[in-house]
Amino acid sequence: MEKQRLDKIIASTGKFSRREVKLLVRQGRVLVDGLPARSGEDKVDPQSVEITVNGETLCYRKFTWVMLNKPAGYLSATEDGRGPTVLDLLPPELKKQGLFPVGRLDKDTEGLLLLTNEGGLAHDLLSPRHHVDKVYYTRVAGRLTEEDCRAFAAGMTLDDGLVCQPAGLKILKAGEESEAHVTLREGKFHQVKRMLAFRGKPVLYLERVQMGNLTLDPALARGEFRLLTENEEATLRKI
User: How many CB atoms lie within 10 A of CB 184?
Assistant: First the structure.
């Protein structure tokens, strides 16, 4: 692998900024193969040397994957003049890594959103031919019925001509305001909202809770994020 600057490698973990890395190097708290690093500008091959920071071995990854618990009010974009984007929720050292959202959540939709700088895998996860399920929790106005479930399972063509593939609708609570899980294998514009509105049950709240086998970490408060674990990344690659 091509050699890279030590400060860039360490900053790619999302735990330290490059400025913080320089301080750690001066304090002798960064070791390369057991020896104190001389400078954050030193170039090394992260896959052929052992880097430790504060006694902890650095696990280098070529690409960065972030799980974000998206709050309402943020746009799923890298930049947008209409308002704040999900990248505004990240620290500077992550924002500089060229991350982008894997798919989109509406401005008022909350929940699981992945961000990465690995374009190939991101494209595969979004491609209709890979059929990656996306699960949403929703609260709607009106009583959901088994007839609604059958309509989702059969697929539907909306009044505006949008053809929706078969989808899952699992009723969690039926009443004047019903709750359900919706499972999609595609991601057309406002699709969950449009399908439920077509059934006469407008959405009051929407949250994505799962993508493939990856579920939203319950320890993440709204607006918080963390890096994916190696096992979680491996799960995405299997998809």
Answer: 21
